[in-house]
Structure formats: structure tokens, C-alpha cells
């Protein structure tokens, strides 16, 4: 079963209709990598003018509820969505230059183990964003 078949099956099994708009929105998230709802809308509108921003938000909510996309807050603005077909990762965001770097979850192994063992807490890495500044001295 391909990724496309899997998400179509998940939509149907959850009682949601498979619509062309949903297909376009999920494809946009996968193609863009990390994208805000406005960026998804701009991408989708290249293929269909029939989609509006409220459709984007509703669809992203449905897709996230089904575990097909995730969101992270990479700024104080709208959330950024990415496909779960991408590798599991968290984000480093520089407050000076705005650079975003995806980092694999293995970097957090010790912290995850400590939180699990000492606090009975399981970290959701896909929603984690760490803010700081580039050590190399970026320009503001």
C-alpha cells in the first residue's frame, strides 16, 4: 500500500469524504515540506481557485486528527504543518535570523528517557520547537 492509498483509506475509515480539495491540500503539505496555512493556500491556488483559507484550516485539522500531518509553532504566527511521511524531527529556530533546522529525535534520547523515567511523561517530538540563536553569529 502506498502512502497515498494509506491516507485515502484512513479518511474513508474515519467517515470523512475524499475530496479533490483534501487531496490538493495534503499534496501541498508534502511538496512544501514545512508550510503555514497561507503558504498551503497559495500552493493549492496554483491548481484550483475554488479553495479558500477556511477550507485549508478545516482540512489541516482533519488531516492532523488522522495523523497524516503535524504542526509546530516555528514563530509567533500561524502554525507550520508538515507531512508525517517525512522523518520524525523537531525544530531549532534562530530568533535573530529566523533560520529553521530540522533535528532528528535521537539528539533528545537522554532527555526523553529522563522525562519518561522520572516524570512518567512521553515527549511528542513532532510538536517540539526549541528557540535560541545561531552560535555562528548570524545577522539580525
UniProtKB/TrEMBL annotation:
<dbReference type="InterPro" id="IPR043135">
    <property type="entry name" value="Fur_C"/>
</dbReference>
<keyword id="KW-0862">Zinc</keyword>
<dbReference type="GO" id="GO:0000976">
    <property type="term" value="F:transcription cis-regulatory region binding"/>
</dbReference>
<dbReference type="InterPro" id="IPR036388">
    <property type="entry name" value="WH-like_DNA-bd_sf"/>
</dbReference>
<feature type="binding site">
    <location>
        <position position="134"/>
    </location>
    <ligand>
        <name>Zn(2+)</name>
    </ligand>
</feature>
<dbReference type="Pfam" id="PF01475">
    <property type="entry name" value="FUR"/>
</dbReference>
<dbReference type="GO" id="GO:0008270">
    <property type="term" value="F:zinc ion binding"/>
</dbReference>
<keyword id="KW-0678">Repressor</keyword>
<keyword id="KW-0804">Transcription</keyword>
<keyword id="KW-0805">Transcription regulation</keyword>
<feature type="binding site">
    <location>
        <position position="94"/>
    </location>
    <ligand>
        <name>Zn(2+)</name>
    </ligand>
</feature>
<dbReference type="GO" id="GO:0003700">
    <property type="term" value="F:DNA-binding transcription factor activity"/>
</dbReference>
<dbReference type="InterPro" id="IPR036390">
    <property type="entry name" value="WH_DNA-bd_sf"/>
</dbReference>
<feature type="binding site">
    <location>
        <position position="97"/>
    </location>
    <ligand>
        <name>Zn(2+)</name>
    </ligand>
</feature>
<protein>
    <submittedName>
        <fullName>Fur family transcriptional regulator, ferric uptake regulator</fullName>
    </submittedName>
</protein>
<comment type="similarity">
    <text>Belongs to the Fur family.</text>
</comment>
<dbReference type="GO" id="GO:1900376">
    <property type="term" value="P:regulation of secondary metabolite biosynthetic process"/>
</dbReference>
<dbReference type="GO" id="GO:0045892">
    <property type="term" value="P:negative regulation of DNA-templated transcription"/>
</dbReference>
<keyword id="KW-0238">DNA-binding</keyword>
<keyword id="KW-0479">Metal-binding</keyword>
<dbReference type="InterPro" id="IPR002481">
    <property type="entry name" value="FUR"/>
</dbReference>
Amino acid at each position: 500500500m502506498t502512502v497515498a492509498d494509506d491516507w485515502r483509506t484512513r479518511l474513508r475509515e474515519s467517515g470523512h469524504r475524499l475530496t479533490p480539495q483534501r487531496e490538493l491540500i495534503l499534496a501541498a503539505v508534502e511538496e512544501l515540506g514545512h508550510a503555514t496555512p497561507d503558504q498551503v493556500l497559495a500552493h493549492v491556488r496554483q491548481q484550483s481557485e475554488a479553495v479558500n483559507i477556511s477550507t485549508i484550516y478545516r482540512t489541516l485539522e482533519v488531516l492532523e486528527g488522522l495523523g497524516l500531518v503535524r504542526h509546530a509553532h516555528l514563530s509567533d504566527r500561524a502554525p507550520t504543518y508538515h507531512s508525517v511521511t517525512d522523518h520524525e524531527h523537531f525544530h531549532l529556530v534562530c530568533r535573530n535570523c529566523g533560520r529553521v533546522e530540522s533535528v532528528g529525535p535521537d539528539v533528545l534520547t537522554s532527555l526523553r528517557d529522563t522525562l519518561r523515567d522520572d516524570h512518567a511523561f512521553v515527549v511528542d517530538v513532532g510538536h517540539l520547537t526549541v528557540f535560541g540563536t545561531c552560535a555562528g553569529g548570524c545577522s539580525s
